[in-house]
């Protein structure tokens, strides 16, 4: 695996999947905005969705299709440029029609198609434009790096770059490949894999096994990061397993290798998403230590990660630890400020709730790097959590003040 | 009373208070940064403080002095430019020394002095500089509009203007005056009067009576507003009553007049603080209706008011109601999206969780005004709450990325 935040050089294409993408004119820019994956017969699936109570039509229908097919999926159709959310019954009907058209073009049942949408909320999906392009899209499916790359491009909205991660391991004489493709740069918030993530593998596994591994990996990665604290209405992480490697997810060795590879892919994609956060100049890794438990550590991490004053200080590479301390004090955890210590890239800046003499030029230089680590010790117990977040820049405001109008 | 957000023309000086301010060199700019109020013998007091677990030295000592003196105060000393927070024992000693010096100069006990500080966290108070200026400050106390204006100026940090509100009412042959002076523009968040607010009156009242009225008025004003969602470590609202009007806070008529006047002053100051929020171009008044109860309505209001995507949309005067709906869906209240309606300045933009046809140019024009009202109906009950908040602009980021370095 490459380091988080860095895209990988070697991409392994799992067997059993082919990709296609084109422009259906949903984006005014004319860029790629419609993408398809065709999976071979027997492919199993598991998914995680947003916890927002307001969910987009494709989330409702994707959940429904997975249930109806008991975790067997044959295609994924994604559009960018329109979230098909808060669009009521017409939105559901539009999504159903896209699934029907896709199924028709590929010779499948509509329930075997998993839909996703990302983009603006509250605008009806241009369903005719999309439907007209589905046959061409289906005909273009190829199991190649090129078409996979086009798929990764087509699902982007405000992303500035494609997000890919891949891994391969041996099991006996066979090789198992995993490939993750993600999009996401705004509305990134923990509590759910708040973005679109598709992970493909050619291992053979039951939907239940996939669901277990996907939840484990997501809890340690996508649920421990935040760009802006907003929870999307469309977030989806989908794991598809074609079985084409001939290797079954069984036995402790193959299981360990698979879960390590999956975690690595989720880590890499999570890192890439945060690093490509809207307007982000600095990625901050928070380590919260000495909490009573992991939940408490995460609560403190989120309070710090969501404080506008903390995030704007980071934008200025300002080692203003007082704002971090104030955010901790306000988060509801009964912290004793006199036991809190804060470190910036290994240098102690606050001991027992009080500032200590430190090299502020060095701290400023550390915070000026693309990535910096901040450790907070609470003096309450042995719970800990890591959390990846970002600064908040004028560029973020510019992007989001101008996005829809 | 003038409208919220607008400073008043007529300022009534309550009898029994004199003011003074000077530059002690705490601010590098050389601006006024040290201010004093002297109150006459018999003055009663009540205060509300930040709920942040990290509190500044003056908050600890102010609370302690109020308790020791059983709500009788004779002086208030305020410095800007340094919060004296996260400064440990030396910070407490510095604050105690300032109180001692002030008491010495005015012939009081140190416990009769109420201290406040506002500014950067984690830097030791330049106590010698301040102590050296206290005699001059004490000697300069005058019961005049001019010196009161200087006091209001001296407590400012990133504020762009002074914040004053005043009221007067008759009770029998006497007149009772109230005067509020506030500072605050960053770190503005509900749950506590998150700023420095001093309210002076010449009515005669017990500390207990004052505490009751102050809490009532604050709950409806300072606790229902937010600029950036950050809770300060130094927030203080202090109400002082000299008794010099000869009118006692007793009987239903005087009590009603007083509580109305106090509420009006708090409303005006809260409005002025939000309107002067860092980088604020648009003040948004949220009305959350049809919640199960007021607490639930406030929870929804805060979720909307703290969403970066919502706040940045407002910066662009963008009627992107989908972001409001997404923020409601993520806030933890079990809202049924299909029952939610949203109005921008009286125009329905979302009905039953779905966008409706609306005049988007008109909505954009409404949101381009300095002040705009957004109503959200949840369809859950008859609870309601009003909440005042702001947009988030590039200017906010600029101010806060550069504040301390």
Q: Summarize the biggest pleated sheet of chain A.
A: 7 strands, mixed
Overall geometry of chain A: globular
Unreliable stretches covering 5 or more consecutive residues of chain A:
1-5, 187-194
> What topology, given as strand order, has the largest sheet of chain A?
9-16-11-15-12-13-14
- How would you classify the quaternary structure? homodimer
% residues in beta strands of chain A: 25-35%
Q: What do the pLDDT scores of chain A average to? A: 89
How many beta strands in the DSSP annotation of chain A? 16
N/C terminus separation of chain A: 40 Å
Judged by helices, strands and strand pairing, the structural class of chain A is alpha+beta
What is the number of helical segments of chain A per DSSP (H or I, 4+ residues)?
Answer: 11
| N-to-C order of helices and strands of chain A | EEEHEHEHHEEEHEEHEHHHEEEHEEH
Question: Helical residue percent of chain A?
Answer: 25-40%
Compute the CA-based radius of gyration of chain A: 22 Å
Q: Quick one: which chains have the greatest interface?
A: A-B, 67 and 68 residues
